[in-house]
Amino acid sequence: MDTQKFATADLHLIDTDRINDSPGPYGMSFGFELKPLVRSIKTVGLLNVPVLIEDGEGAKTVISGYRRIQAVKSLKWDNMPCRVLQKSEFSPLECLLLNLHENLATRNLNNVEKGMVLSHLNSYLPLNEIMKDYMPLLDLPSNEEKFDLFLKIEKELDENIKIYLARGHISLQGVRMLLDMDPASRLSVFGLISNLKFNINQQIQLINYLIDISHITKASVIELLKDQPLENIRLNDNLNTPQKAKAVLRLLRTRRFPSLTEAEKTFNKMVSKLDLPERVRIDPPLFFESPDYRLEILFKEGKELREKIGRLFKMDGIEEIGNPWERGA
Amino acid sequence: MKDLKIKKVIVEKGVSGQEFAQQILRRLPDIPVQTIKENESKAVHDIQNMGKEILHLLPYKGEFLKPCPGTREYICCGYQILNVATNCPLDCSYCILQSYFNQPYLKTFVNLEQGVEQVLKIIDSNPDLVFRIGTGEFTDSLAIDPITRWSDWLLPLFSKRKNAVLELKTKTDNIRGLLTSKFRDRIIVSWSLNSPFIAVREEHRAASLKKRLEAARQCQSEGFVVGFHFDPLIPHPKWKEEYTKTLELLDKYIDPKGIIWISLGSLRFMPGLKPIIRRRHPDTCVLDGEFIMGLDGKMRYFKPIRMELYSYMRKNLEKWHPDPGLYLCMESHDVWQKSMGWSPETSNGLKRYLDRRVVEIFG
After folding, report:
1. Is the peptide bond before B232 cis (omega within 30 degrees of 0)?
2. Is residue A128 in a domain?
3. C-alpha distances in angstroms, A320 versus A199, A317, B338?
4. Residues A138, A111: contact at Cβ < 8 Å?
5. Most CB atoms within 10 A, among A237, B79, B319, B341?
């Protein structure tokens, strides 16, 4: 690439309405916040000029500076200085690399933008070259599976999910799981995620439960989401949004793990029948997998400890504590 | 086993001259051969096929003999793996080897002769230890034996050792190589079994249960000691009736007196395997169970479900024969105690129990 050619390209004052409004074939900006840039340009002016390319008929396509152009347009400037390249002198790949390197030097690309970059590169370069030279530049592991995921993000993901991803409100893992669903199910699940504002861990749990239950019951994800008990939670005015999200997960967990949740219920019943002193608790092992149960006694001084141990020692029914499936409630 | 089709052989430069590699190439006269440099083999993205029709001949650089990757949280049998190959032409939906889809192809280690020599030195220099060695951990022991003829190499070497046994674990009926060998002593041929429901639905390309058991009967009648592995046990609709069908087949074909051991294990897997199974086998039922995170970080069934599986199998197997050499694979002391009625307590305890079985059967 002739790097001098870019630097020596002519500077022109271009009418803003003659600059194509779309991000164009080299665009890699998504989900950005325009206000800080508008404020900066309004206060100190346009410090770095955008780069455009002109075809033979006068149309101007953005190579770099798309966000600056949007900011200037929102300030209603009639024209703005731009560096203009001639289409005959620069290949599309050179234009794309110009924008890519400019972006990489100044900011971190979000995951949607990385998908855009890989998708653009895919039009011009063989896969092995993209994996070897460009995925590391994007801080991505050089493997085909990741490449495919990011291409799908660009090509198949709905706009609203892209916005969620760009803002970091959904993880890459969550997106990957949504992409494995059919488009209608994906949108329904995303609707629930965004309505009830599930956090990132809850999103993974939710998607996992829905996929598993759908396989087990042979009901579609959409049918599961229309289930009455779930609908009742969504419509329950006594619960706030985080409470609703937790209640949905509890409901689905009970359906996904009937034996485990039954054991937990039985165990809790078993413990609640005991008249445990205050600040004393008995917990089962995680998933009842380890054989060891746990007794926790909080106390302020030895006298209180002795008294609590004494009460526990004499407590009826304490010997019944153990695996709930062996003892019953 | 359903037809094994090798479409291509990849040979790493420098190994084609090795006798073992040459023998394999002679057995595949019409198959295209590609020679590559060391480590040139690329990860393929064919997650569906995983290069199961491509044989990759290469040297193994690590230790040929490795302890089974047990974990200290559960009781392990102390089995040792002779690493002759990795990956498998069978395509069981629950297989752990799917995690390695970025290292595709049927990788066969052609420096086996030198590797086994080292292993035999270790065996011979520890005459007081019993070595239970198997080739069926990272591949099926017999699935590509018609091409590799590992049996020709390994049987004579292990038959001579008085402190070792070689277990060949399979889901195939590829026993011709074994039967043509004159060596029987210290060799165990074992079959992985499951319910007919799971075998048909989930063990793609494996031999039918009937064929596996016919092969086992033939091996038994030809003087081989046999073993069985009900691993992974998978609860599914009507699982009791379904596993009973397999036990009835076992009774029909096999004399329980000649069995060295029968292991029971329930499905367990690293969490990362789940999305791979979902993508490779969208209609599978193996992920339907109630899996919890085990103490070793692997997903396994909720404890009472495992105990019910083991208790049921134990009750029925002990009806068949009072001492079929039952043991649990990677289970805890309390699960042993409650479902088997006794526990070896530690991995060493289980090792001693299985070593005793070896001595009782082979002397």
Report:
1. yes
2. no
3. 38, 5, 17
4. no
5. B79
Q: Is residue B2 part of a domain?
A: no
DSSP structure class, residue A60:
E
What DSSP state is assigned to residue A284? P
Are both A251 and A280 inside the same structural domain? no
A215 touches chain B (CB under 8 A): yes
For residue B111, tell me if it sits in a domain: yes
Residue B42 pLDDT: 60
Q: Please check whether residue A59 lies inside any domain of the structure.
A: yes
**Could you tell me which chain A residue has the CA closest to the CA of B294?**
A289
Pair A235, A294 in one domain: no
CA dist., res. A52 & res. A82, Å (int): 7
Q: With contact defined as beta carbons under 8 Å apart, do B322 and B334 qualify?
A: no
Question: Would you give the DSSP letter of residue A8?
Answer: T
Q: Say if residue A277 is in the same domain as residue A252.
A: no
Give the residue from B73, B290, B306 with the most A CB atoms within 10 Å of its CB, the best one to mutate. B290
Query: Residue B112 is part of which domain span?
Result: 8-362
**Interface contact flag, A291 B293, Cβ < 8 Å:** no
Mutate to test the interface with B, among A260, A262, A264 (most CBs of B within 10 A): A260
CA distance A82 to chain B (A): 43
How many structural domains comprise chain A?
A: 3
The complex's ipTM?
A: 0.92
A212/B contact by beta carbon, under 8 A:
yes
- Residue A329, pLDDT score: 43
Check CB contact of A182 with chain B, cutoff 8 Å: no
Q: Across the strands, what pairs with B206?
A: none
* Residue A180, CA distances (Å) to A157, A159, B149 in order: 11, 17, 42
> Across the interface, which of A145, A177, A260 has its CB nearest the CB of B45?
A145
* Chain A positions in Cβ-Cβ contact with residue B303 (cut-off 8 Å): 287-289, 323
Taking the C-alpha atoms of residue B24 and residue B15, their distance in angstroms, rounded to an integer, is: 12
Give Cβ neighbours of residue A65 (< 8 Å, ≥ 6 apart): A48, A49, A50, A51, A82
Report which of B283, B197, B237 is spatially closest to residue A214, judged by C-alpha positions: B283
Q: Are B160 and B107 in contact (CB under 8 A)?
A: no
The CATH number assigned to the domain holding B289 equals 3.80.30.30
Residues of chain B with pLDDT under 70: 1-2, 40-47, 101-102
Contact B288 A180 (CB under 8 A): no
- Give, in order, the Cα–Cα distances in Å from B193 to each of A37, A139, A184, B197, B209: 66, 45, 40, 11, 7
User: Is residue A151 domain-resident?
Assistant: no
Nearest CA in chain A to B298: A289
pLDDT tens column, B113-172 = 889 999 999 999 999 999 999 999 899 999 999 999 999 999 999 999 999 999 999 999
CATH number of the domain to which A63 belongs: 3.90.1530.10
Tokens of B330: 């990677």
The range of the structural domain enclosing residue A290 comes to: 271-327
Instruction: Let me know if residue B1 belongs to a domain.
Output: no
Predicted local confidence at residue B49, as pLDDT: 73
Q: Is residue A124 part of a domain?
A: no
DSSP secondary structure letters along B178-246 = HHHSS--TTEEEEEE---HHHHHHHEETSPPHHHHHHHHHHHHHTT-EEEEEEEEE---TTHHHHHHHH
Asked whether residue B60 is assigned to any structural domain, the reply reads yes
Pairs of residues, one from chain A and one from chain B, whose beta carbons lie less than 8 Å apart? 54
* Number of domains making up chain B: 1
